[in-house]
Amino acid sequence: MPRFPVALQPYTIRDQLQADFLGALSKVAEIGYTALEIGPPPAEISLEDMKAHLQRLNVQVMGCHASVEQLQTNPENIISFLHEMGGKYVTLSYRFESKEEVLARAADFNAIGRHLKDNGVQFLYHNHDWEFVKFDGEYALDLLLAHTDPDLVQMELDVYWVAKGGEDPATYLRKLQDRCPVLHMKDMEPGAEQFFAEVGEGILDMPGILQVAEEIGVKWLVVEQDLSRRNPFESIQISLENLKKMEAVLV
């Protein structure tokens, strides 16, 4: 089985971060995560304190998420944060209402991606299921990929949302050769609700996904679970333990 470094997207523990930011990060490290996909700290905590805390925990920042507005109006803030923390990737999501909007945003994303690339940061796009709406017979996501520069606009594919959109995650991932350095890992419960599940606890073909991930050049796995039936800390622990059982974690 291929092995990858594994990070946590702490949106999963957003409530716990809001209650005790540094304490929640300590708990993440105790569970066994050594990397995070995380943005700047809340106003009451300085960047210096966050950085020192993560250094004590031996946890690195590999990237963060941002909005279109942030990356168009003041990208230097995100660039500076990632340089300070040692991260490489910045990711955004978007919801397209028409083919024209996809094409317009594709041009915007190319421009954002060029500026980021010139400053040592890689731009990524993160999908949900709504990119699998069709405009003129083509998925919005396929249109976006076709009209953006593969070097400037790469993917952080989310395997759950691909399945929710009606496609097989491994099959869709295979289309992204050298264009998907980061893969969001979450699973799906059986049944009509298609509720989120911990990695390895649902119906998605995780071994198949991981094999394709190696084939197409994925560099990082990032665990995220939007909603959980368990305590979120328990969920992220189960996902990491299952990835270790699959021998998918680079240690």
3D structure, described in words:
It is a single chain. This protein is α/β, with parallel strands linked by helices and 251 residues long. It has one domain: Alpha-Beta Barrel (TIM Barrel), CATH 3.20.20.150. It has eleven helices and twelve strands. Helix 2 (21-31) runs parallel beside helix 3 (47-57) and helix 6 crosses helix 7 (140-146). The protein is globular and about 50 Å long. It comes from Deinococcus cellulosilyticus (strain DSM 18568 / NBRC 106333 / KACC 11606 / 5516J-15). Keywords: Isomerase.
CATH topology (fold) name? TIM Barrel
Shape: globular
- Rounded to the nearest angstrom, the distance between the terminal CA atoms is 14 Å
What structural class do you assign from the helix and strand content?
alpha/beta
Low-pLDDT segments: none
**Mean pLDDT across all residues, rounded?**
98
The helical percent reads 40-55%
CATH A-level architecture? Alpha-Beta Barrel
Q: Number of DSSP helices? A: 11
Along the chain, the helix and strand elements come as EHHEHEHHEHEEEHEHHEEEHEH
